[in-house]
Amino acid sequence: GINRSTVNKAYWELKSEGFIDAQMGSGTIVASQFSRTAENTDAYIPPMPWPQIMTQPYQLSGNTIIKTALEAIGEPDTISFAGGFAGDDVIPVDLVKSLMPKCLSTYGSQLLHPTPLLGLSALRSALCKQGTLKGIQAGIQQCMITSGAQQAISYLTSLFISPGDMIFTAAPSYVGAIEIFKAHGAKVVGIPVDQFGMDTDILENYLIRYRPKLIYLNPNFQNPTGTYLPLERRKKLLDLAYLYQIPVIEDDPYSEIYFDRIDVPLLKAMDRHQYVIYIGTFSKMLFMGGRLGWIFGAEEVIQRLGFMKQVTDLHANTLHQYLVLEALQSGMLPKHLAQFRAQVKAKQDVMVEALNAYHIDGMSFNIPEGGFYLWLELPSRLNAHSFFEACKTLKVAVMPGDPFFPQATAEHTYVRINYTYPAISDIHEGVRRIMKAIEMATVT
Ligand code: PMP
């Protein structure tokens, strides 16, 4: 036999000569060429195996649906119904023009300084005051400012979800949230949506069998279906959350975008036990480029999120926080919203009119009473792949519905159509192109 230390010594010699590569935990391999040493700087340097060293969620090639939608914006001649934001004809440039000088003269250099981790106290107070008017009981310690709702969803997922944990969402549900959940290794289970939103009877049946860490939904003009959860379902949802002790995330970008006043309160306003974590955003009410949102939640949750803010980007953009503060304090936000709702409704009307004018058998859609989207079911004889190819050729962009279902189960082809981005004068032509694409992709 050979002495163990002789073998070890031989290995060390081979390694120091660069004939082998040894790595703790992954064994020893023959070096592909001479390894790089202090003396041998011309040695072959292998390419960095980036995908292999990334953490698991990011090794997976993600869905590119959001990337594609953002890129379609500004493509010449393309009429885009794929986005989720206001277009040039309704975006509040004049409002910003009037707020900006006021901000500069009132706050001066403060606009350029950092803010606390949780955001400007004055803005948080103003948001709490707004919340109170809607029946939400949240003090400043239960409120934080985020860089958009997207960051809020991300943070909450990091805070609660370990790989393998389960989340219940509506099916369909906001694709951007589903992707965050999946990137964190969550099992995302979809609760079907009907014309009133998430079906709470089915939710109950699922809760009898499974115990999710979170329930996530947009009860108010849901993305993508535009549904508004009725009072009875809200009560039932909360009762179930209390019974099974599950936190509920109410992601709410659209409740202020109503066309007729709605009397059903926000879920967070009905919750007296701090089970609901509320996410608000200025992306839809004002503009998306500002990346400003907020969270109302239990103080323990907000404190942890403050630390997350510290380890990611310290705080939300200061200038934009002051801009929004000014919009709230000057009373200009409600004025803007009144006008904006009317503009969005006018665009929705044109959209609906065009869809009816070009109606195709087997196609159906709802007419939401608020929000940014129509959810269109396409005829069943349609070849979805050809349809999206035809859209590209005809220079019209729509959001494919499939990725909005957490589990690929949809039997029909759906598309989400946004009516706030395209110019009102382009909507008819855009719908004509969508209908042409349907015809081109229909199997006869
Ligand atoms: N949640 C929902 C339901 C949304 O529709 C959106 C915007 N598409 C977001 C979150 C992200 O919003 P923000 O721009 O505030 O990050």
Automatic annotation (TrEMBL):
Tell me which InterPro entries the record gives. Answer: Aminotransferase_I/II_large, HTH_trans_reg/aminotransferase, PyrdxlP-dep_Trfase, PyrdxlP-dep_Trfase_major, PyrdxlP-dep_Trfase_small, Tscrpt_reg_HTH_GntR, WH-like_DNA-bd_sf, WH_DNA-bd_sf
GO MF terms here are: transaminase activity
- Presence of the UniProt keyword DNA-binding in the record: yes
Domain of life, source organism: Bacteria
Keyword field: Aminotransferase, DNA-binding, Pyridoxal phosphate, Transcription, Transcription regulation, Transferase
PANTHER family for this protein: HTH-TYPE TRANSCRIPTIONAL REGULATORY PROTEIN GABR, TRANSCRIPTIONAL REGULATORY PROTEIN
Instruction: Give the SMART domains listed for this entry.
Output: HTH_GNTR
Pfam families from the UniProt entry: Aminotran_1_2 (PF00155), GntR (PF00392)
Q: What is this protein called?
A: PLP-dependent aminotransferase family protein
The text of the family note is: In the C-terminal section; belongs to the class-I pyridoxal-phosphate-dependent aminotransferase family.
**Record carries keyword Transcription regulation:** yes
